[in-house]
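Q: Hi! First time asking for a complex rather than a single chain. Here are the components, and I think there are two in total. Is that enough to go on?
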Amino acid sequence: MTIIELKNISKSYDHNSHVIKDFNLMIEQGEFIVFLGPSGCGKSTTLRMIAGLESITNGDLFIKGQRQNDVPAKNRDIAMVFQSYALYPHMTVYENIGFGLKVRKVKKSIIKEKVTEAAELLNLTPTLKRKPKDLSGGQMQRVALGRAIVRDTDIFLMDEPLSNLDAKLRTTMREELVQLHRKLSATTIFVTHDQTEAMTMGDKIVILDKGKIQQIGKPTEIYNNPANLFVAGFIGSPAMNLISITKEENHFMFARQVVHPPEFTYEPKELILGIRPEDCEISVTEGHALKITFIEELGSDQFVHGIVDNQKVIVRELPDKKFHIGQKVYLTINQSKVSWFDKETGERLRLKNE
Amino acid sequence: MNKKTTIWQILLYVLIPLIPLVVFWIIPLIVSVWLSFTNWDYISPSYDYVGISNYTNLITDEAFLQALGNTVLFALATVLPILFFGFVFAMLLNRLRRNVTFLQGIMFAPWITPMIGMSIVWSWMFDPQIGPINQFLEILGLPQPKWLTDSDVAIWAVIIVTIWKNIGWAMLFFSDALSKIPKGLFEVSDIEGANWWYRIRYVLIPLVSPTSLFLFIILTLDSLQAYDQINVLTQGGPAGSTRTMLYLYYEIAFQQFNMGAAAAVAVLIMIISALLAFISMKISKKYVFY
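A: Yes, that's all I need. Here is the structure of the assembled complex.
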């Protein structure tokens, strides 16, 4: 069942330039959706429009089939977790978690029951009487989450809730959030600029850039079949190698060798070949000549940076292979894993027989 | 840096600022306390020690008790409305969400205008015949009191002027406090569904409470020191109805030349001030959030 629908949503502050343009998205009940994009891409603005904290310039927002454009935030019955946590400094943890219930005039006994339950779920029971200033970052984050949980709503909005935590805590909280989502099965929209969070948490990822949706899909779909050059360059660490292929007299050439791309639905003028670092290999005997310029050793594997035909590439290699900077080797590419893009439009090229 | 010079530096830095404090505050304070046990008349070189009779006389003196009552009424009736209106105006200006510096400037203007000058303008405003206030009341068909000459009303005239003068000042402090509240805290109350009263009661008031305490203490002490507006508007009259403790002090000291009794009033004012400040600080521990 579709619970949230965004139809041609646009947002502009000055009637000339759009922060969000023609945003269309259907969100199913119980889904964990991640809005992913670089800062300033409009992902937070979209979330705030769904919450009712920003007005919608054009288009329609439906929640459970009801148009929400003119419904004030407090009547949308949505819970939201803020990046800054937005805890009231003068209230204890207990009061902060119970705030939304108290505001809605829920009975004190029920508030107590729910807050206690939420505190247990989030391991906050020993901190209930403390004020936010006596809490650690992770605890504050969980209090903000608790405030959302007790509301018993079926829509959660989360605006970069993990970005103020240190790396280790972030990993733990990531897991806890996913577990929590499984337990509560509330529809969740999670905004982040961290692709690891997006890849590990999302049922579906919506990638945004400059106010436009670039691609919607499952994490693996997006990783394996990026829809355009932006997505290809944004997802994956290190990012996909994007190699320009030039056309010389009806032949596509790369590193002075003729390339035979598959047949596309149309004939592009110039091509870009995209290949993930783990889908190419370094060979000492055959392939395209590559000069090693830099080696990153990560323990579990190593990233070998090099130059092929004046273009930078990164190859992921096993850690026990020995290379050195300046070494001249060869690059081989796993042809079945190649993504092709039209250099002019930046879009992924679809194969004729696909 | 070696230790010897630091000690000298500390002495230097503390002693020099201490000199004016000692000359103009601590010594007069001690002298006042000492004078309050004498019957010095401000002019003659001789005096006698009278023990605590200055104090006992005051406590039984009707004029003093009236002044004490006036002071309490004046303090309560100025401080609370100033805090209330200052907060309300700050909130309204905050809601405008545009550049309000000009409006703030206008509202702040009474505070930087000398009280003497403003009091003269107000004494014209309060004039029963030609004053605009009574002309306005006449249009509305309301009773027109003789503001400055009726002993039941005069203190309210002084109170109105004092409130008017200080609202802009309190508003400026509240505006600053409100603007420092993170936007997210308001957005949470939006999302959680708080109505306007709830937002004010449980979010705004607690978050500006340090400012409220500061203003409360300063305004209370300020109200104990009110003199200019009383002097211009009513000179403590009619029938002592606007005579506050400080004004009584002035009268006893410089009109009746009874410096001993005046010093006793001054000492009592100081004790009351100190007590009030102390009590507010104590109460604040429970209600003020830092």
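A: Chain B has one domain: 28-40+48-287. Let me know if you'd like any chain examined more closely.
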